Amino acid sequence: MTDVVIIGGGQSGLSAARALNGHGIRPLLLEAGPEPTGSWGDYYDSLTLFSPARYSAMPGQPFPGDPDGYPRRDEVVAYLRRYAGTVDADIRTGTTVTAVEPGPRGGFTVRTAAGELIPAAGVVAATGSFGNPHLPVLPGQAGFPGRLLHVAGYRDPKPHHGERVVVVGGGNSGVQVGYELAEVADVTLATRAPVTFVAQRRDGKDLHRWADESGFDHLPPQWLIHYLGGPAVLDTGDYRAAVEDGRLPRREMFTAFDGEHVVWPGGRREPVDTVLFATGYRPDLAYLEPLGALADGLPLHSGGLSATHPGLAYVGLEFQRAFSSNTLRGAHRDAEFVAAALAAHVRDAPALVGVR
Ligand code: FAD
């Protein structure tokens, strides 16, 4: 019998587990993959954190190494592996949740791919978005004979040696991947608007120090979305220089595919081998459809607390409560907020006592 089931064993699920521990709850954490290290191991090989180690740590465990260095992907995997050992939770890996359904007495039933039915008084959905890449569909796309790829499936530049590649998207992933591909391929960056660059360091200090000290990290997201207007790329200067000097030429997004060509605004057609979409992700929550907790696949929530189902909460949504919500340094603040509400829900709902 389970008080709270956490679905997803990345930084969000582990933050939720730690926060629930603070309320005396030992959750059951279900992770589809082989270990509770989230999606980090599947990100592209060259990935280096945009946040220095000192601003990439979760509570209770400093990030090892130079605090001002930028950890690599595999260092994050190792960090989360260690972190999982510090939380008090029943962690079951290799367990995919296929559905969350209404359970007895106002609780939930969590259904796994192996057919197990787990009753729970509370559920935390912490499954990130990497499993749900967003791929736009353009006219003629189905007839394109080349390679169509989302950046979620990109690992390294090798398969694209000598190719003509269009990278779609002006965010961090699009620019980083376009930059490294341009070393081996003929790359064009296609974006709807000019790329916005933000200086990674000012006066020798990383931007995250300012974000932390100024409180920017904690500001409510509505204000920030308005302020930012669109994606911004953290840059030490190399990316901007590459775009400006033509090593990574940027063009306005193409309008259609035509056979092996892309059609640029104005009608010019150019043959392309690979189109790589760095067009973002959507929350990976299909298992909540049976519950009716979503609208168009997106969670109905306020600050991570379900607006439709008391006892259901989210951790790791983009801009869930603040700018830093979906980051290593920020997930814990949302986790602590929802854990307090879940603990009260579990404690104060006498109808659920029989379920626990
Ligand atoms: P995930 O890491 O995606 O973990 C979700 C887990 O849920 C996975 O382990 C998955 O296997 C599991 N799961 C999914 N569905 C199910 C299911 N049905 N049943 C059971 N388990 C399931 N943040 C930073 O702070 N610094 C950075 O530098 C940074 N760089 C990034 C670079 C890239 C390319 C991307 C995509 C993101 C980056 N982020 C960064 C943002 C964010 O920190 C990461 O996306 C992080 O992995 C999110 O953690 P999470 O736990 O919310 O989700």
From TrEMBL:
InterPro entries: Auxin_biosynth/cation_transpt, FAD/NAD-bd_sf. Keywords: Oxidoreductase. Pfam families: Pyr_redox_3. The keyword Oxidoreductase applies. It comes from the Bacteria. This is FAD-dependent oxidoreductase. One of its GO terms (molecular function) is monooxygenase activity.
